[in-house]
């Protein structure tokens, strides 16, 4: 938890207005997470009686909380250009969520500009993140579970890429497994449209899950960047740990497919994961269909599938 954000988060029962001008619609319940750029709260829409999530733009290195405990003020001496760049990226997150109307994408409810900052309001998804979901499994990942969780995720990525959007922060903590079994992709704070030539991209990375190109503002970034992260997520599903970070494989792009014994456990998936985790974009697997096919083959070869579909 970010210490600065913890000291200055909005307090319980504080109310925010909505984008229609109503002054007290969203009630803060508690802070649930904080990063270098934002504070995330569990909240409630008092008018509709529903839970929601509110993400407050709060780049802790550049801003401070006002004396009223609510307003957000830029710190003296901080760079205006950097602040504006981050503020623009935050607004871009809201814009991309509005554009991405898909059951596998967290739904935006509102975008607010108040108190010297901005807020993104999204639906509250009941369930647990993929890392917690896997940790709760009594045994190793079953092909049936992998099929039920990863196929919908791949379909969501295909939809986003069709819109010209790359997520750029695919990791277990940003994938929600709902109580109803649904799979929802969260946190579009790093997402960008990739079809603009010569674009400069803000650098947001996660050790183990980010491809090499995400460490440069001016590198070529496209759906293949998300494919690297998808392969890393699948690696995590099978081994319960992230793969070796890409920066440690610059001069020796050797990666054990899935570890001793697991090549036999996942004969199809291990090849797809290895191709997806290739350091070089040009040599990396470029199609989501490879992963979808590998997961389906693992599922169809599993005892669970054969019991459900006996021959004869």
UniProtKB/TrEMBL annotation:
Residues 26-305 form the Protein kinase domain. Keywords: ATP-binding, Kinase, Nucleotide-binding, Transferase. It holds the Pfam family Pkinase. GO terms for molecular function: ATP binding; protein serine/threonine kinase activity. It comes from the Bacteria. This is non-specific serine/threonine protein kinase. InterPro entries: Kinase-like_dom_sf, NEK_Ser/Thr_kinase, Prot_kinase_dom, Ser/Thr_kinase_AS. The lineage of its organism: Bacteria, Bacillati, Bacillota, Bacilli, Bacillales. Its EC number is 2.7.11.1. It is an enzyme of class 2 (transferase).
